[in-house]
Amino acid sequence: MEARIAHVSDTHLGFSPREGVKQNVWGEEMRSRLLENDFYERFAEVFDRIAAMDPPVDLVVHSGDLYDSPWDKNPSQPPVVAQETAIAVLQKFTARTGVPVLIIEGNHGLYRTRDVSLLDLLRISVPNVHVATQVDLKRAFSEGKPLKFSFDKLDVFCFPFIERAVLESADLMQKFNEWISEVQKPSRKRISVAVSHGMELDRSLYTEIFTHHYEYVALGHDHRQRKLYDNAWYAGSPERWRFDEAGLDKGFLVVTLHRGEMPSVERHLLEFRRPVFNERINVKSQDTPQSVVERVRAWFEEKGLRASWDPDTAARVRLRFEGATRALGSIELAAELDALRSEILREGSEYNVAQFVWAVRVEEREHNAPAYSDIESEYLIENPEQDFREYLGTLEVDPRYDPELLTKIAVRALEFAVSGTEEHLTIDTLEEDEA
């Protein structure tokens, strides 16, 4: 028997960047902001494309983060329009196709201090939509029952997001792994799929899942569309959530399954009219704040962004200024950039830009000599990125791990350690690229 599933993930409905955004522009008048609306349009586009497939799929699985909030940095529930969009799109899809949809809960859209879920509204509002929440996971685990859905051609075992620290603090980690290995066990006679929201990077992916011989493991949490194992893929996010996702392929997967065989995975990619730029500008020692801004103006010209306003193609821009000059940290440069942004984003400007933000990183900072000359500063790291990359070069790194991502983690961890911040280092705070 053959089964076909569509694998969707990390749609982040309700995400609306706020920093450096052009004001008073709407995606849908008086309902959703321009860039927020991109996520709604992409969600509808994905389900329209799946609905039009011939042959049709037997099931759609969504591996978490349907909504963007609540989460660590935004405790509010998603906008009403986000919830309306989810209901309307799913109602239209299931009525048109009769294909069931299964959605699990991720770390976004999750009420961490309440045993309620936004997905419950979909459960009761849309026929043929099935959900697996963290509450469902806790109940199944405590009762020693599987968290499983059976459809005509396959069984789906669900692993909604749950923080490892929660299990460890309750001394339940071993029992949880036992529940996975003993209770979430697939049948030898039916095609089986696991759907999980997690990554090895932040220890939210429970590798005990891979001891079972599921025909396919549908993964969420990583916004890159990529293969983890031959039978385990991340579908990625269908829209650019952070600026560092600008160059990534975006879309969904269609997976063909046969019992006891490796899956056949088709990548379905989306095209975007709105460009997203995440580029570096190297600031030289002789640069002044004024010369830096002139170079930025030239960059906008070079990219064709000095053009008439078009809400469909207006760009999102993030520039990263790097160098070894004091000009980078000057108040004067910040003021010059603020003035330029006001010019670019004002109503009636000559720039086709919907968002403009920047970050500044001084590569080498001067430091005072120690007060006591006989004390060596052997632990001073002048360039942590370069040092860590060189260190990685001495190791045999598992090819599944991205050296650039590992470097970012190490540098961010060092920044957290020396800054004394009370903020937690999580998968979502590894980058400073959030809009």
What are its keywords?
single chain; 435 residues; alpha/beta; Purple Acid Phosphatase, chain A, domain 2; Rossmann fold; 3 domains; six-stranded mixed sheet; 10 helices
Poorly predicted segments: 366-382, 418-422
Question: What count of domains describes the coordinates?
Answer: 3
CATH domain fold name of the largest domain: Purple Acid Phosphatase, chain A, domain 2
Broad structural category: alpha/beta
Major β-sheet annotation: 6 strands, mixed
Give the termini distance in whole angstroms.
Answer: 46 Å
Tally of helical runs: 10
Q: Determine the strand fraction and express it as a percent band.
A: 15-25%
Q: CATH superfamily assignment of the largest domain? A: Metallo-dependent phosphatases
Order of helices and strands: EEEHEHEHEHEEHHEEEEEEEHEHEHH
Mean pLDDT: 89
Indicate the CATH architecture of the largest domain. Answer: 4-Layer Sandwich
What's the total number of strands?
17
Radius of gyration: 24 Å
